[in-house]
Design brief:
Layout lengths: L2 H18 L7 H10 L4 H5 L3 H10 L3 H4 L2 H10 L5 E4 L5 E9 L2 E15 L2 E12 L2 E2 L5 E11 L2 E12 L5 H39 L16 E2 L20 E6 L7 E6 L8 E5 L5 E3 L4 H7 L1 E2 H11 L4
């Protein structure tokens, strides 16, 4: 037996096997991850069509900022300081990012809704989902991104970026969440309107005293209605309304004397607002969660605390 020939054949077969087991070509999804997380700006350029890249560079147009803006926004969100980031080359998620926001935990998921590969073309649809303390955070619209990629010279290159905004009205949970968020936003705008009103009343009371007119307990003498809506007017305010405007707050001025006054704002029945507000001639405005002006005057909390409470309830994405 010729052992030299056998060894030679074995060596040749090993080399041939190694050559056939080369690193598999990059997938379109891997190309997207490279664009998002590579620290080199060349990673963006690598996946832009050569013809487009040549035109952009000749024009010195700042294309990396304008053209790649949607992907850059995803990159910024995903790589924020303090986040635990994990990426996935396969499966229903492209990446997850978890971080602490105040006393809450926030989780951001970029999901792969579709990955339609057809020969040298691939279309990947991504959507963003946010969770606060494990519960979905319903955004007014669900942001999405559709990436069309085409393989050129064994490199996946972007041929089109589409920014999509979805409003899934057929999803009852989504609609309930949005309705609740809209209610909270209207409540805050209404309450801030009442707060602004009593602060303006105080200014006018002080101005009256300086003119030796004295303090007044008559709200109308300060140019305000005793019961009024403090919510912002509709954008189409010139259009007829099917229902009359709701009066949100009752304003009162009590304890008028030569030296002082107390102004209160209490939410009326049927108002979306729940907090009462108050102010006097000496201090800053306060609020009471029970909606009572008397509580506000006796043991009201500083307005700064209200701001903190609201910021703790809502995490900003």
């Amino acid at each position: 037996m010729n052992w030299a020939k056998i060894i030679t054949l074995l060596a040749v077969s090993v080399v041939a096997s190694a050559q056939t087991q080369q690193t598999p070509p990059q997938t379109a999804r891997q190309a997207v991850l490279e664009m998002l997380f590579s620290k080199s700006p060349k990673a963006f350029e690598k996946h832009v069509p050569e013809q487009a890249l040549e035109i952009f560079n000749k024009a010195d147009s700042g294309w990396t900022t304008a053209f790649m803006g949607p992907l850059a926004a995803l990159q910024h969100q995903a790589t924020r300081e303090g986040q635990h980031l994990e990426t996935f080359e396969t499966g229903p998620l492209l990446l997850t990012a978890e971080s602490a926001q105040g006393n809450h935990q926030q989780r951001v998921e970029i999901a792969v809704e579709r990955d339609d590969l057809s020969g040298e073309d691939d279309q990947i649809e991504l959507s963003i989902h946010i969770y606060k303390d494990g519960m979905p955070d319903r955004l007014p619209v669900v942001p999405g991104l559709i990436l069309d990629l085409k393989q050129q010279k064994d490199i996946w290159r972007l041929s089109q970026i589409t920014v999509a905004l979805h409003v899934p009205l057929s999803d009852p949970d989504y609609v309930k969440g949005i309705a609740e968020q809209m209610r909270k936003n209207r409540q805050r705008m209404t309450e801030f309107g009442a707060l602004g009103s009593i602060q303006q009343m105080k200014e006018k009371e002080i101005a009256r005293q300086k003119k030796s007119a004295g303090f007044t307990c008559n709200v109308s003498e300060l140019g305000f209605a005793a019961e009024a809506s403090t919510a912002p007017a509709p954008m189409m305010s010139n259009q007829p309304s099917a229902t009359p405007a709701v009066k949100d707050y009752s304003f009162k001025i009590i304890g008028c004397s030569a030296s002082g006054f107390e102004i209160t704002a209490e939410p009326l029945k049927g108002s979306v607002a729940s907090r009462a507000f108050c102010i006097d001639e000496t201090g800053a405005a306060k609020f009471a969660e029970d909606g009572k002006g008397s509580t506000c005057m006796s043991s009201g909390k500083p307005i700064e605390e209200m701001y903190r409470e609201d910021s703790n309830r809502d995490l900003v994405f």
